[in-house]
Amino acid sequence: MAWINQLLRKVPTWLVYIVGLIPVPLFLYLAQTGGLGREPIKALEHELGELALKLIIVGLAITPLRKFVGLNLIKFRRSIGVLAFTYVALHLLVWLVLDVGILSQIWADILKRPYITIGMVGFVVMIPLAVTSNNWSVKRLGGKWRRLHQLTYVAAALGGLHFIMIAKGIQLEPLIYMAVILSLLAYRLPMFARKPARQ
Predict the structure, then answer these.
(1) pTM for this structure?
(2) How large is the C-alpha radius of gyration of the chain?
(3) Under 8 Å between Cβ of 187 and 193
(4) What DSSP designation does 134 have?
(5) What are phi and psi of 62, to 5 degrees?
(6) Could you give the CA distance from residue 181 to residue 162 in angstroms, rounded to a whole number?
(7) CA nearest neighbour of 109 among 163, 43, 100
(8) What is the pLDDT of residues 83-123, one digit of tens each?
(9) In the chain, which ranges are E strands?
(10) Inter-helix orientation angle 40-64/151-166, to 10°
(11) What local confidence, expressed as pLDDT, does residue 198 receive?
(12) Would you say 129 and 155 are in contact if contact means Cβ atoms under 8 Å apart?
């Protein structure tokens, strides 16, 4: 594992952004060419949202991976978080512009549909995390930065719940995502962690 970590240290963080954004033009191409099925807008929403949730899970898994496997991805945690926020924002944008498109209907849906309310709360929670995911904010906020970024746990739980609620009936995939998220959050409880997880 040491040689992998040495190799990872040479990988620039900007490369993570480039690779992480490759699915965006791919999804748009598939939507335009019928590759996303009969309802491309709904499919595009789903793909963007699910990818965001996967990135959130990857971000949560970085500390356990370092502790139990020895794989050090700490260098890329902030970039993964920013990518997760980007995909959540794109997921929301597709819903706002392409799916609903009517301002009054948007507000009605947010207020009346719990799964949309939860999704919006999750998005709002992620905004300060994305805004402060830079070296200037880390230095400026000091110890408060780590406490602020514990909101990641809230965003992850809300994202998992949102996924479960939008599924039609009981489906295994959203439940698996939620189980993984809860396991990664439980790892951070004092009774399971020997020392506080690094953020």
Answers:
(1) 0.90
(2) 18
(3) yes
(4) S
(5) -60, -45
(6) 13
(7) 100
(8) 999 999 999 999 999 888 777 788 888 888 999 999 999 99
(9) none
(10) 140
(11) 47
(12) yes
The span from the CA of 145 to the CA of 140, in Å, is 8
CB of 71 closer than 8 Å to CB of 4: yes
- What CA–CA distance (Å, rounded) separates 46 from 91? 8
Residue 94 identity (one-letter amino acid): V
For 123-159, how does the pLDDT look when each residue is reduced to its tens digit (9 = 90+)?
999 999 999 999 999 999 988 999 999 999 999 999 9
* Angle (CA) 144 148 153, round 5°: 145
CB count, 10 Å around CB of 123? Answer: 19
CA distance 87 to 63: 22
On the question of pLDDT at 76 being above 50, the answer is yes
- Which DSSP string corresponds to 143-196? HHHHHHTTHHHHHHHHHHHHHHHHSSS--HHHHHHHHHHHHHHHTTSTTT-SSP
